[in-house]
Design brief:
Blueprint lengths: L2 H14 L9 H7 L1 H12 L3 E7 L5 E11 L2 E7 L3 H8 L2 E5 L12 E11 L2 H9 L10 E17 L2 E7 L5 E6 L7 E5 L1
Antiparallel strand pairs: 1-2, 1-4, 2-3, 3-6, 4-5, 5-6, 6-7, 7-8, 8-9
Length: 192
């Protein structure tokens, strides 16, 4: 099989939501952009509950609540056995996880989203280790566990009089886009 055929086959699998895309583990993201990754984790750590977007069978979006769990170099997505969001991810593993914006409109710590693919973990020893270290200590006997393969991390916030976007994707430097209120085009820079 030629490289071109392999690439076409991978694209077809990814469109169906199977296999992995170009995602990386949370540890690889942390290694590539340590300060940014720490800020994102802190933002998620501010509140326990966040919003997970998955795709329904008909392709329409589904939004549900979820606790994000950053441990052992991974972003874990744990959920109740047989839940609709778990069924969605088993069918099409693309997801987006949006950090809880909080109770007011201050957005002091920015607006954060992580997207990628969720890889289901079924190995009994990994499930047992994850359950033993779960922060709430109340993991049900049977549950679904997914490991996130990060494909994009976005932080949007306000600094001085500018809207600032920080965007990270595997294999690319952290992009920083600054936009003011006027008609001037946004300024873009790469942070290394």
């Amino acid at each position: 099989m030629t490289t071109r055929e392999q690439r076409a086959q991978r694209v077809r699998r990814e469109r169906r939501g199977h296999g992995t895309g170009c995602g990386v583990s949370w540890a690889e993201f942390r290694e590539a952009a340590p300060g940014f990754a720490e800020a994102v984790e802190q933002r998620f750590g501010k509140y326990p509950h966040h919003v997970l977007a998955t795709l329904r069978k008909d392709g329409s979006p589904r939004l549900t609540g979820l606790e994000a769990d950053f441990r052992v170099g991974e972003l874990w997505l744990g959920m109740m056995w047989g839940s609709l969001k778990a069924r969605d991810l088993r069918r099409d593993n693309r997801f987006a996880l949006h950090a809880n914006p909080g109770s007011d409109n201050g957005m002091d710590d920015g607006d954060v989203r992580v997207s990628g693919r969720a890889v289901e973990v079924t190995a009994p020893d990994v499930l047992a280790r994850w359950a033993a270290g779960a922060p709430d200590g109340g993991t049900p006997e049977k549950f679904h566990l997914f490991r996130a393969e990060v494909e994009e991390v976005v932080w949007v916030g306000v600094e001085r009089e500018e809207i600032v976007l920080r965007i990270w994707r595997p294999g690319h430097p952290l992009r920083v886009i600054r936009r003011g209120d006027g008609d001037a085009p946004p300024d873009e820079e790469s942070a290394h």
